[in-house]
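Homework help board

Subject: predicted structure for assignment chain

Our instructor gave us this sequence and asked us to write out the predicted structure in token form, then describe one feature. I got the tokens but I'm not sure how to describe them. Can anyone check?
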Amino acid sequence: MGESLSRTFSRYLVALEFEALPDSVVDKMKASLLHSLMISILGAETSHAQAAVELVKNEEGKAGGATILVDGEKATRAGAAFANSKLMHATNQADSYRMLIHPGPCVIPAGLASAELGGNSGKELLTALVAGYEVEARIAGDFIPSTQARGFRSSPIYGTLGAAVSTGKLIGLTEDQWVTAFALACTFTGGTSEGPRSGGQEMMFHEPNATRNGIMAALLALENVRGSETSLEGDAGFYNAFTGNNRGELSYVFQGPNQTSLDNVVGELGSRWEIMHVTPKIYQTAGYNCPVIDLMTDIRSSHSLPTEDIELITVDMNWLETLYPSPEFPNPQRAAPGVGSTHYFAAYTCVHGYYPPLKPRIDPGEVSSGEERMVLDLMQRVEVVGHKDRPAFAPRITIRMRGGTTYQGEYKGDELEWGLDTEIQRVRPWFEDMSWPVEQLEAIVQSVSTLEQQDRVDPLIQLCISR
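My token output:
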């Protein structure tokens, strides 16, 4: 390897302009932005998001600061971004890359706050958001399962870097300042998987804190502190700390050999776009359950399946999806049939023919007395099988009826990697059930769709305030 990873990224980020972004990448970014804004409106109705907003207003309220979405009050740049990140993550519907990182709640709140305070245009915001998504996804890439295997939760670990990038692009870091921003972000990041493993809820604040830390990394870089050149790949750097080594030797992988090259992290910058593999979470559940729900919905749309006649439902998935958060630290409640498990979502969707996107999230092990008995009964006839040769987000569902008839459906893994048109199609049905005026929600859709034509981002932010 020649120059350091952070130096290569820094040169790229300094030169990156909106005009260099393919139309498909801009469209994809708009889809993620719209998704996050709609989820923030839903998240504002949760008690824990409301508590976070009140905390920020009390501790970091600032006249002339950045806007807290939905609420409309102002706070410090980092404070508003913390609150907005919480809004975008509160219902567990944030977007995903390779199942275990969620760029939206880190990259987008950081970008919105800095664009508002800096008076940036829609083009500049979109460019910064694409940069944040792309760099975060590339740094994470093949290393995500190895990070999880060390007891860290990948989303905040890599999200700190994504937030630093979206902020740094909007405040105009120089090449050397970018190197320092990477070094600081590598130092500031954190977040363990004990919560996901044992059922603790501290992970609810992982992304908000990662967002704040990433913003601070970028702002402190303006002080021209000299950061380590090899903060990512150095012998005592980020990859050694959070994946176990700096040689690309992997503890676990979704598929393929347990080896990668650090050269791939910066390979084909500007031509290979990892952002295109981001998937939004339409349902209030773990990302790997979303394709199971959609696939079962597809099957049920073509077949009437009397519940009492179903003998067995088999869901074949990628092996890591069945051992969340890691084979080293699996959560046994997620692997067994129970309310909130993959078994549950497959059964519910099979019984009803769909799963409501706005149905409040159900945590593994939680028992709801209002759930239909037939769903709970059918759940006991669902088996989930993990496979090392199966891509993530690519379930196969086989339904065997009493008497021998079998129905089957299968995804390849890219079905949820949609753009703006499909995102609009998927969220529009929510509007009638949301507490906001439909015309205001439609105005948000229109503003995001034409964001590159807007001189400032303020009008979009104002549309995201409750009236």
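Reply (TA_rk): Your tokens look well-formed. For the description, you could write something like this. The two ends are 54 Å apart (CA to CA). That's the kind of observation they're looking for.
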